[in-house]
């Protein structure tokens, strides 16, 4: 694969991080931020069956990429509204996890952020372009999820709830 400078278009010697030999622009490959919610009801959490690639047909958590200049907390609330048709209240912050996302033939680094959340308004109506199904799954014994960061965040969320934080 050939890489080019984002500023002047000159060919680059390698993948980022790299400095453009023509204009001196320093190019980096930074993780893209995402925001997701772990909606809990007792000892269960709400999961969606992904309708699209990557990982279509696997269990997923409501969430997605932060828009430019959007605060991650705002993105988490927006994504829940878009994907589920409900308003949520964000509760405890579970954590940030470094992962990967396959998009347009590229493997991108992502920084996935998760919050415990509660539905506060609306009727659950998952967007069919996002999910083919949904279900309440056991938080203490979750299935393998669509992304490894979710596999890490769910046990951390369960531990937080046990400790009462």
Automatic annotation (TrEMBL):
InterPro entries: NUDIX_hydrolase-like_dom_sf (IPR015797), NUDIX_hydrolase_CS (IPR020084), NUDIX_hydrolase_dom (IPR000086). This is NUDIX domain-containing protein. The keyword Transmembrane helix does not apply. Its cofactor is Mg(2+). It holds the Pfam family NUDIX. It comes from Rugosimonospora acidiphila. It comes from the Bacteria. The lineage of its organism: Bacteria, Bacillati, Actinomycetota, Actinomycetes, Micromonosporales. Keywords: Hydrolase. Residues 30-159 form the Nudix hydrolase domain.
């Amino acid at each position: 694969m050939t890489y080019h400078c984002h500023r002047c278009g000159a060919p680059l010697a390698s993948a980022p991080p790299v400095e453009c030999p023509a204009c001196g622009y320093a190019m980096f490959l930074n993780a893209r931020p995402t925001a997701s919610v772990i909606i809990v009801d007792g000892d269960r959490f709400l999961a969606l069956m992904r309708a699209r690639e990557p990982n279509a047909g696997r269990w997923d958590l409501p969430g997605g990429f932060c828009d430019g200049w959007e605060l991650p907390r705002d993105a988490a609330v927006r994504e829940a509204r878009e994907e589920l048709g409900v308003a949520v209240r964000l509760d405890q912050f579970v954590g940030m996890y470094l992962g990967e996302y396959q998009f347009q033939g590229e493997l991108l680094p992502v920084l996935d952020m998760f919050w415990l959340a509660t539905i506060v308004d609306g009727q659950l109506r998952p967007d069919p372009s996002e999910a083919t199904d949904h279900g309440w799954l056991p938080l203490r014994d979750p299935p393998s999820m669509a992304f490894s960061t979710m596999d890490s965040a769910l046990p951390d969320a369960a531990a937080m709830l046990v400790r009462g934080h």
